[in-house]
Amino acid sequence: MIEKIEKLMAEIEALQAANAEEAEALRIKYLSKKGEITALMNDFRSVPAEQKKEVGMRINQLKAAALDKINALKSQAAAGSQQCACIDLTRSPYPIHLGTRHPLTIVRNEIVDIFSRLGFTLAEGPEVEDDWHVYSSMNFADDHPARDMQDTFFIESHPDIILRSHTSSVQARVMEKNQPPIRVICPGRVYRNEAISARAHCFFHQVEGLYIDKNVSFTDLKQVLLLFAQEMFGPDTKIRLRPSYFPFTEPSAEMDISCHLCGGKGCSFCKHTGWVEILGCGMVDPAVLEAGGIDSTVYTGYAFGMGIERITNLKYQVKDLRMFSENDTRFLDEFVSAN
Ligand code: DAH
To answer: How many structural domains comprise the chain?
Structure first.
């Protein structure tokens, strides 16, 4: 009997279980009603009286050791399965993947930063606007084609409420609340009812600039835009202004910069002209000043507007506009900003 107990004790000490099921099988094998240790206890009756004390003690020790061992195997198995399910302790924490600023945000911040150094302050207006701020106050005639359903998104059942199609609407918002001197830069998202392709999107971003004071001239406009172009695209950048038309400015112009890819020599990017268009601008039309409650006999002003996607494309040569809104991290990770 003693020998049998010692043999079982050795067995118990060497037990191993790979998982909870194996540990439970061992409990059944040794400690259940028909288990080997239970059977030993049943045999206890036939042990001679003088050995009963020692055998009894040894059986109790064996049973306690078996219980301890099997419980330990069970909790080891449970801890192991928990670790596998939720944490991989072998995985290195590096490199930690940090997000990056969106390229349009980087360029927007750069534009705003350049103009704030010239004394422009930030102004914003709503994306869901009324016809007055987007068109009428900006001197668009009632039958101007830009109001057409093809360009403008209308809010259903409210023909007067639209998604703004340009940030020029913020000019009107600023004028109605402030008297000159006004010097603001207004970045924001705009919407146009266009089929989405590599070159057009139904929403994009613009930055509007407005400066109104006494004696503001076209020369002031030109000088500020030259400084902007050189800060944005490098000190050798040249600008040229071509006559154009916008309802809200008179005279109006479009501005080109010398192509910074070929230095103005001509390449496929600038269609071999040496110039690329970057913005629209002009002197604020007196009708716009009056609509904004500003006396056009006392004050003059200039305004300009540019597309942030356009400036970003010029800086980074993004060929497909859709990349900006697809949120593919392989694209976004290419842009690293200092702030
Ligand atoms: N609002 C014009 C557009 O969306 C851009 C623009 C042109 C804004 C000339 C201006 C400006 O302030 O003077 O195409």
So the answer is: 2
Answering whether pTM is above 0.90, one says no
Range of the domain at 77: 2-85
**pLDDT tens digits for 133-172?**
999 999 999 888 888 767 899 988 888 999 999 999 999 9
Return the structure tokens found at 100.
């990056």
Q: Would you state the torsion angle of the CA atoms of residues 61, 65, 66, 71, taken in this order, to the nearest 10 degrees?
A: 140
The minimum-distance atom of ligand 1 relative to the CA of 138 is 1
Q: Are residues 114 and 57 in the same domain?
A: no
* Strands, sheet with 300-307, edge to edge from the N-terminal-most edge strand: 121-122, 182-191, 203-213, 300-307, 275-284, 249-258, 239-246
In a domain, 328, yes or no: yes
Alpha carbon of 306 to ligand 1 centroid (Å): 7
Peptide bond into 251 cis (omega under 30): yes
One domain for residues 74 and 166: no
* Position in ligand 1 atom list of the atom nearest CA 171: 12
CATH number at residue 253: 3.30.930.10
Which pLDDT tens digit goes with each residue over 204-223? 999 999 999 999 999 999 99
